[in-house]
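Hi, here's the filled form for the chain we discussed.

Project: internal
Contact: R.S.
Residues: 368
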Amino acid sequence: MSLIFSNLKLAPSQISGGIRIVPVIRDNYTGTLRLQSQEYDEDLNITQVTKNISYISYVPHAFILSWSDDGVPLVSEGTQIYKKNSKVTGSKYFSMRSSSKMIKKIDKNKIHFLPLHLAMESFLNLYFKGPSISWDEYSGKIKATGLSPRIEYSYSGKYIDGLEEALRVFEIHENQVGVLLFVADKLASVFIVPHPEDYRSLHQSLLKDFYGELIYYYGYMYPSVSKFQVKIDDDKVNSLSDLRNELEQMKTDLTDFYKFMAEGILQKELIFNDVYNVGQHKLKRFMTDPDVNLENHIGEIIVDNDNNIEYLKTFHLSSEQVKKVVLLKNLDLHNWNLDETATYMNTTKSKLIMNIEKLGFGYLIKAH
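And the returned structure, exactly as it came back:
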């Protein structure tokens, strides 16, 4: 299954330095699904995913999602104070928030969730269950306590060169509900919300999101990008009707080109996992089928019964992150048997162990 943009349009991009933002327009929004932010000030967030698994990260905000069951549009609530659904501890130098769930129901038609962390938690846990057989090659520590911790690094949007200025100066379009965000023309993120008012209030939240290592370095390496020139063919214009047709063709050509730029996610089959029923909609998380030779993304999405997108947030994985998940996938496929995995990957056992160590999993292997 792939992403369907049938209920959305792409407007001409805006450029600031190396940042290109393509506005996403929704003309037929209903208002029966609304999204707003709940800000956090703590240095760290710990979420208890299961009895034995905790997810630890810096989380600048949560999202509050509200929906209507009867088709009646919801009124924007603006900034609201909600009943506490987590615990805050710490000192004047450091503070920590702890919560019991990634998604928590806070009212009949209202949930609280951690944007993008929902997808990242699933990614970190993917293929990371370890062997069911006590193979000799693995360390005694993982046999006794499991594989944890699984760690990945990311960068806050405020450290992406030029992003803060771009968000400040870019014009928000009428009926805009999201963006395709490119850094040095590499797709950093797709962010889409249900309603134009939601996007206006969350536009600056892109600065608080986290981005991959590749995007961080691209921001510094490529300080500018080129403008796209789409011209009207004068020979085809003999009337106002011809001019309108040419303008529509220009829009179509631009949309096709932006989709081509974002083909790493818009034109690939995705692996989806249902997470929560949101009235008549479904909240899912997903990732592209990991391939070390292609662009790879993870994300979360809310779709209706026709798979039209209401909410979308994505993260561009680095090549090393993809290599890690491919390695873990192959190990898991062969129940962590190193000989079988090495044969499957057309390598030797010693080279496989070297690769495991190179990708940061050396602690899994017994020291010799």
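Let me know if anything looks off before we file it.
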